[in-house]
């Protein structure tokens, strides 16, 4: 199956460069480009790409607001945000807006292509350096948020354990190895967690876990 991608960036050279790199992949097709957030929202509705590759700092409508509008219009939309070190302050906001993952702009062509495949498959994607900054952001938040804590009662003890491991960035295979269970069992647990908590993907599950205090920075 070919993954259809929309590239959103206010720099033409960046868009063209990504387009060349991604179209060289046998299973990825760039179906369109957008030079600002407002255009990104319109093009996403028009083209229905599998993944929106989103820059953050843009004119008209920034990537955060564009992501929020895209996800609000289509709960199944998948947005992969490209960020740089000086933009990491926006990571938490974009996750809350519904982004499915993050990559750094200096990633390799292979990392970019693999990242798009991961997000298209419904998995969360957070670059390690971005994850560290994300944890720092949660440290500033202080105490867990009451609404999130209350919703934890809907989960079984094992589901809460799986949620904590998801928040730490472990894949299904890694969680299965840690708990000594089958991959399919972990997949079932993750699916039930998302349904019970009303979350759209593993990225939102990670955010919820930190907000509810299931995982704390440094743990």
TrEMBL record:
<feature type="domain" description="HTH luxR-type">
    <location>
        <begin position="148"/>
        <end position="213"/>
    </location>
</feature>
<dbReference type="InterPro" id="IPR039420">
    <property type="entry name" value="WalR-like"/>
</dbReference>
<dbReference type="InterPro" id="IPR058245">
    <property type="entry name" value="NreC/VraR/RcsB-like_REC"/>
</dbReference>
<keyword id="KW-0238">DNA-binding</keyword>
<keyword id="KW-0804">Transcription</keyword>
<dbReference type="InterPro" id="IPR001789">
    <property type="entry name" value="Sig_transdc_resp-reg_receiver"/>
</dbReference>
<keyword id="KW-0805">Transcription regulation</keyword>
<dbReference type="InterPro" id="IPR011006">
    <property type="entry name" value="CheY-like_superfamily"/>
</dbReference>
<dbReference type="InterPro" id="IPR000792">
    <property type="entry name" value="Tscrpt_reg_LuxR_C"/>
</dbReference>
<dbReference type="InterPro" id="IPR016032">
    <property type="entry name" value="Sig_transdc_resp-reg_C-effctor"/>
</dbReference>
<keyword id="KW-0597">Phosphoprotein</keyword>
<feature type="modified residue" description="4-aspartylphosphate">
    <location>
        <position position="55"/>
    </location>
</feature>
<dbReference type="Pfam" id="PF00196">
    <property type="entry name" value="GerE"/>
</dbReference>
<dbReference type="Pfam" id="PF00072">
    <property type="entry name" value="Response_reg"/>
</dbReference>
<feature type="domain" description="Response regulatory">
    <location>
        <begin position="4"/>
        <end position="120"/>
    </location>
</feature>
<protein>
    <submittedName>
        <fullName>Response regulator transcription factor</fullName>
    </submittedName>
</protein>
